Structures are given as structure tokens and as C-alpha cells.
Amino acid sequence: MADKRWNGRTFGSGWLLRWLIKATRWMDLRLLYGVSALFVVPVCLMLNASRGIAYRYLRQRHGFGPFKAAWKTYTSHCLFGQALIDRFAMYGGKRFEVDVEGYEHFLRLASGDEAFVQLSSHAGNYELAGYTLVSERKPFNALVFWGEKATVMQGRNQMFAHTNIQMIPVKDDMSHLFEMNRALQEGEILSMPADRFVGSAKAVTIPFLGKDARFPQGPFAVATSRGVEVLAVHVMKTGIKHYRIYVAPLPYDRTARRSDQIDQLAHAYVAELERILRLYPTQWYNYYEFWQS
């Protein structure tokens, strides 16, 4: 079985990532996109198993024909490259045009006294939400991988220096669990991905794009442990310098048994993720056999 645990590390050496940040300051992003599409992506498709994985996802889960699925496999990898370039462009100071669907849901919870949880996925470019969905009233705690490269962590620190965002690193000593609990206890915002396993292998099995898939139980268990409200947030690329953020509340019966709450919340999250991927099938960047039992 393919390892579905969260690795979290950005590909590339430190000097290459630093060069990319500097390059985005003076180069047109379209030029970098072109270099990636013409030279980097073809090499990745030849050498990486993600080629077959993405093809099967598009062919089997979305029902595209062989030629269309093959073209969209290439497109998906190009968009993934653009997402990485955009992230480093943001570290370098560039800004993107962003519109938000469902912004009122975030504003309502951000202006209240109670904590809430924001669930993301590896679809689109979630990190760009960091300078749009910002609350001056509530600290925003984002779960991040502790072993990420120093260049990426430095970029994040610079980007979020003037916001109310702080990062909770996932560590082997499980200290992040105490920080997550503290954030919810003190009425703050907690953000975490809900489509990859972090530590615990406990899972919920849910129909997803026509076939059962395993999702980590942890994010749903954390939210229901305190009965807080939950949002699903996805940041999808719609143009060269344009993104659209989708904010959707995830309902669950907070008076039900805990196991039922977890199940309801997980199903609500997966339904929203499926809706997003129906709209943007090529922006799904979980390049491993997600449906493999």
C-alpha cells in the first residue's frame, strides 16, 4: 500500500528555492510557467510515477477518455508547477487577485468569541489563503510540517509577519497536539489539512468520486472534541494572477454521539472536496494511489 502519511516537504534544494524567490521578483510569471511546462514537467512525467497515478485518477474517477485524460495529466502537472511558482512569487512579494465565495461564513466565525476549525486539502493552492482570510480579532493557527526546508519556512514567516497567523509545526514528540488544543480552548482559529494522514493511522472510509477512500480521522476528531464550527476552504487557480477561494460551512449534529459527529463531519468535508474537484479536476495534487486499499 502506498504511504499516505503527510510528508510535507517541498521538492528542490535550498539554493534552487532561494533562486526561484528572487527570479519571481523581476521575471514575468508566464515565462516561468513556460519553462516549467516545456522543460520541467516533461522530465517529471517521464521519471515520476505520478504520471500513471494522475492518469488513472482522471480516467477512472472523472470518466475522461484516454486522450483527454492523458492531456489533462500533463495539464495537472503544469498547474502544480504553477502553484509552486506562485507560492514562491508570493514569498518574493508578488500579490494575486483573489475573490472569495462564501466570505460571509468566515467573517461570521472570525468576529465571534468561539473557536473554529478550518479544513483544507491538497487541491489548489491553499497557502495563498494566508493573506486573504485574515482575522484581526482571532489568532490563526496553521498546522505545518516541521521538517520543511528553511527557505520555505523563512518565506512563510516573512509573508505572515504582519498578520495574525502563527504556525504549529507537526513534531515527533506530539507537542503540536497540545498547541492545537490550546488554540481551540482559547477561542482561536485552527487550520489543518484533512486529506492526508499525520501521525495516527485511524481512518474513516467514505465514498469519494465513485469509490470508497480512506480519510484521516484526526481532523474531524479534533473539531468534534470541542463541538466547534468547521469550514472547508479551497483556493483554486482561475487565471495567470487570479485565484478563487471557496469557503463552505460543514454541518454536523453536535448533539449526536461522538462517533456519529465524526462520521457526519467527514462526509460533509468529502462532499465539498468532491464538488471542488468536479469544478477543477486537474488541480488535485495528491499524486499517490489515494483509492488503493
Task: Provide the fold topology.
Layout: H1 14-26, H2 29-47, H3 50-61, H4 66-91, E1 97-101, H5 103-110, E2 116-120, E3 140-145, H6 150-159, E4 165-170, H7 175-185, E5 189-193, E6 203-208, E7 211-216, H8 218-225, E8 229-239, E9 242-249, H9 258-279
Parallel strand pairs: 1-9, 2-5, 2-8, 3-4, 3-5
Antiparallel strand pairs: 6-7, 8-9
Keywords:
20% strand; 293 residues; 9 strands; two-stranded antiparallel ribbon; seven-stranded mixed sheet; 44% helix; alpha/beta; disordered N terminus; globular; 2 domains; single chain
Q: Tally of extended strands?
A: 9
What is the CA-based Rg, rounded? 19 Å
Shape: globular
- What is the domain tally? 2
What's the helical proportion of residues? 40-55%
Which series of helices and strands comes N to C? HHHHEHEEHEHEEEHEEH
DSSP summary: helix tally: 9
Please state the structural category: alpha/beta
Strand content: 15-25%
- Regions with little confidence, pLDDT below 50 for 5+ residues: 1-13, 147-153
Q: Order of strands across the widest beta sheet?
A: 1-9-8-2-5-3-4
